[in-house]
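2024-03-11 09:14:02 INFO receiving multi-entity request
2024-03-11 09:14:02 INFO entity count = two
2024-03-11 09:14:03 INFO echoing inputs for audit
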Amino acid sequence: MVKVGIISFAHMHAYSYASCLQQLPQAEITAIYDDSNERGKSAAEQFGTIYYDNLEKFLNLEFDAVIICSENNRHKDLVVSAAKAGKHILCEKPIATNVKDAEDMIAVCEANGVILQTAFPVRFSSGIQNLKRMIEQGDLGKILAMRTTNRGQNPGGWFVDRDQSGGGAVLDHTVHMIDIMRWYLGKEVREVFAHTDRFFIKEDIDDAGLLTLEFEDGTIATHDTSWSRFSNYPAWGDATIEVIGTEKTVRVDAFGDLIRIFSNTSDQSLVYMNAGNDIDLGLVNDFVKTVMSEGNPSITGYDGLKAMEVALAAYESSKTGKAVLLNQT
Amino acid sequence: MVDKPQGGVDLEVIIYHNDNLQINCPNVEKSVIDSEEKLESIFNGGNFNEVLYVNSRLKGHNALFNRADKVFLPIEYYLEHLSLTDTPESNTFIILDLKHIPSSAKLLEQLEKTGKNRNGVFRLRRGSNSPEIYKKSVGDILVLSKLFGEPRNLFQKGVHDQATDVGHLIISVRFDNNVMAHLEYSAMNTEKELLEMEMSVPDTIVEFSSDRKGLTYLTSREKESLLLDVQSMLRNPLKINSKIHSRISGIVNEIPLLARGEK
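2024-03-11 09:21:47 INFO inference complete, emitting structure
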């Protein structure tokens, strides 16, 4: 049995991850720590566990691993504390708000011999995994280009407070599909050109970005990221990738398996119901299995860092109007 | 020698390829010139209508250009056959197909009519089985700059595999109406010509995909071209002049995949 504590429900994904833990027979939620008393107590009640308002006491409990879903700017301190307490860690994305913090997080986990996994659930979409297999089998031929999107709704709250989030939609979303592209290619991004802007929300933070990328093997790519989906949009949004190979071109939407429901009884006449697999369950299950086997995580802290680095480069490129070079040797 | 069409009206020549003209276009009296015999008969005094649809692959078809009152050329044909330093012929018009594919024309018209042509994100994606598709980017930029304002800070990336003739062109551009855009073009293994456009502005998302239309083949391997509305083309043409010509040259020079003559 893997005992898991959850640190903070500031990020809404915590509710989904907690629900996933409850579905796994080999895992249990030991306790919850949250710096918001009200939120923490409510979550503990919802998931039938104990709430702690003191991080030290929480980390002194006997359990194996933590899932950290705090505001982005607190990831580093919480990871450092959890690692020093000997807990394996699944950290919500983006791993941090700057490269130095991410490097420190990776280093402290290595020093304390604990797993640091970045929460990139899109890797667990069956469509995304099928395309990965097709690429590995050579079905697509040589990959020349990729096109990706991750457009969703504005989460509001601390996400639109730059001090806490580190950035808007570009940081929030870009990391997912950069991770998928890195995973498919096994290569790093070497050049980033981007436009970032605010079109859709009132708060003073970016809500859209168009990234043009080149990987170190010459593969070119685009990423369209935004909080452009309004509240009455029939689905949360998308996470798509199209891979253009010399033999085949294939497109996947991680949320593309859906049922369309038309209704005359609500303000929203059309709703897309997800009929695909539960990607959060795939992620949490993978983490729990890694903890059980004490193996290497399928998605490392380094993966989190490299994805975040591209998002940060996008901001820089947009500011200067010039391409930013990364991973130059 | 080519005589005037029946009735002595002006002769208009439309160059087509990939069977991409709407043949059943009402109110257009046309003759389809899709064989060398038919082409020859025009030069030998045969009867023909005022609009000629002429297949671009026919040898000697360009002999018609000097005789026609108006010649309509697809942008890719224009780029391929006319040196960009030449002075354009005064009877030449360019076919910018975004304006003449009924659905895409409708989308662009809707954006303009509703004022959704500013402050947002626009994405265009095209695909076909030929690297000729890259050349459509020039026409697309001309059309989109009418809608979104002048293009600025154009950045491009292109890759083309000569062995398989598969490749991809990315154009990132910022238009003056505060619109940021990605325009993407794939030469790929497909029988279908693909066009997708989407515009996201506050509270509105407008999308079009040629994959979702009235007529759909459920079997694979069917050749599908995007059909152009000939009436729209005749009504709303872009006449080439030295200003447009140098604008086109300027765009080409910003896209190395085109400037170096990639197919």
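2024-03-11 09:21:48 INFO post-check: The mean pLDDT of chain A is 96.
2024-03-11 09:21:48 INFO post-check: The first strand of chain A starts at residue 2 and ends at 7.
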